[in-house]
Amino acid sequence: MHLALIGYGSIGKRIVAWLADHPVQQLTIMVRSGAIGQTLGDPALAQAAKAAQVTDDIGTLMEGKPDLVVECAGQAVVAAHGPVILTAGLDLVVVSVGALADNDLRQRLAAASEAGRAELILPPGAIGGLDLLSTLALAGDVQVTYRGTKPPQAWRGTPAEDLCDLSYLRQPTTFFDDSARDAARLYPKNANVAATLALAAGSFDRTRVQLIADPDATGNAHSFDVRSPAGSFSMQIESSPSADNAKTSVTTAFSVISEIIRKRAALAE
């Protein structure tokens, strides 16, 4: 199997760590300009694949015709490279699901997927219950309220810093209460779960999102309530944050790994 990663942050590194015990034939990693040497110096690459390549050029990545491309580099990368990857017939896993809050981009990705006969894969990430939510959404008038609770440090570098004093919180503080579309726009590195739920519910505008900074939180908590004429349910999941990125849950990387396993099994058939 030829696997390609776009981005080599906490998610990419955890995937490569897993590959050490489940190596692929070929691994290509695309990083930002200037980071090639640092990435090549990671000793984990030697165990992850029989042949590893690091580039900063999307054309070079695509020339190798990888069996699966995994995006874990942010919404801007999805917009810049997602359509061309799919049009070229390459299956694409999108981790930065919040990018699909942009209706135009979502339509372009769908059209590219059809034109290239390639699969656009949206992993569940840190959340579950999506199959039931999608089913209930068919009944119409589905109402979804999502609450994302993380330690204050996970919200640094976001608009939350201007809405509350993250250094001196004494109790859980809700600093955002609006639509999933606005959550994806304002908190692109923290709202992928909200975007995933909105896609399953069929509406970014009708999916309500509450973002909370909790000084007593030890991990990332995701809870949501679903109400529809056909049925209702609630779910709560607590995930460990990545050691080097408090914004990202560890389960997100393993959600991507499950897609890699699925693709590898399909290639072996």
Which quaternary structure do these chains form?
Answer: single chain
The total strand number stands at 13
| Beta-strand residue fraction | 25-35%
Helix and strand content put the structural class at: alpha/beta
Helical residues, percent: 25-40%
CATH topology term of the largest domain: Rossmann fold
H and E string: EHEHHEHEHEHEHEHEHHEEEEEH
Which whole number gives the mean pLDDT? 94
Stretches where pLDDT falls below 50 for ≥5 residues?
A: none
Classified in CATH, the superfamily of the largest domain is: NAD(P)-binding Rossmann-like Domain
CATH class of the largest domain: Alpha Beta
SS summary, helix count: 11
Q: Based on CA inertia axes, which overall geometry fits?
A: globular
Distance N to C terminus: 13 Å
CATH architecture of the largest domain: 3-Layer(aba) Sandwich
Main beta-sheet strand count, sense and barrel state:
6 strands, parallel
Radius of gyration: 19 Å
Strand arrangement, major sheet: 3-2-1-4-5-6
**How many domains would you count in the coordinates?**
2
Pathway: Cofactor biosynthesis; NAD(+) biosynthesis; iminoaspartate from L-aspartate (dehydrogenase route): step 1/1
Function: Specifically catalyzes the NAD or NADP-dependent dehydrogenation of L-aspartate to iminoaspartate.
Enzyme class: oxidoreductase
Domain Aspartate/homoserine dehydrogenase NAD-binding: 7-122
